[in-house]
Amino acid sequence: MKKPYPVPTPDSRPFWNGLAEQKILLKHCRDCECVFHYPRITCPNCLSSDLEWKQASGQGTLYTYTISRRPTHPLFADEVPQFMAVVELEEGPRITSTLLNVPEDKIQIGMALTPVFEHNEKEKITLLRFQPADTALRGSAPSAAEDKPTSASQFDARGAGLHRPGERQGQRLPGLCRGNPSLLLRHRRPQSALP
If we measure between CA atoms, which residue out of 63, 40, 74, 93 comes closest to residue 144? Predict the structure, then answer.
């Protein structure tokens, strides 16, 4: 069995072809000027189908992240710990990706990021990753072997999202609903207030 890779669809193929040329292409609405990602056939803002592809700068900031200490699938065991991230691009859209070339203790919400185009010749696909824009923050992440738990209890606690003593905990965000306060309020309503 081999690792799964993205399969471009007719709607997403220009995005993947752009990555192969080391370009990030985003959909742009000619009617309302909205720039968005993931690729789709209508604008999520005004529902227009008058769309075009535009090249993004590729620069972004770290919106949020999580550290996966257990593989999401056995085929990804060689990538643990994996720094999964949501990157807010300069143009506005957010992209889910992974962070490379950064030690865990250097990861900070809001840090400037730059793209890394990871080409897999065998699969004929290029993946978009990100690394710190500031070269002083770059370094290597621990290998999977260095970060393996030393006891079963340690593995269970880390897999449950708990931290070992002295480990830095991630930052929590107030909410992911952007632009619609009523959704955010409904999301935060205590269980006892639900009908």
Answer: 74
Q: How confident is the model at residue 195 (pLDDT cuts 50, 70, 90)?
A: very low
3-class DSSP state of 62:
strand
Residue whose entry in the numeric block shows the structure tokens 């107030």 = 174
- Other beta carbons within 10 angstroms of residue 191's beta carbon come to 5
Residue 69's closest CA among 79, 58, 57? 79
Question: Across-strand partners of 99?
Answer: 130
Over residues 52-69, mean pLDDT? 96
Query: Amino acid letter at 22?
Result: Q
Quick one: CA dihedral 13, 19, 25, 26, positive or negative? positive
Cβ-based neighbours of 88, under 8 Å, separated by 6 or more: 60, 61, 62, 63, 94
* 63-72, 117-126, 184-193: segment of lowest average pLDDT: 184-193
Q: If residue 156 lies in a helix (H) or strand (E), which one and from where to where? A: helix 152-159
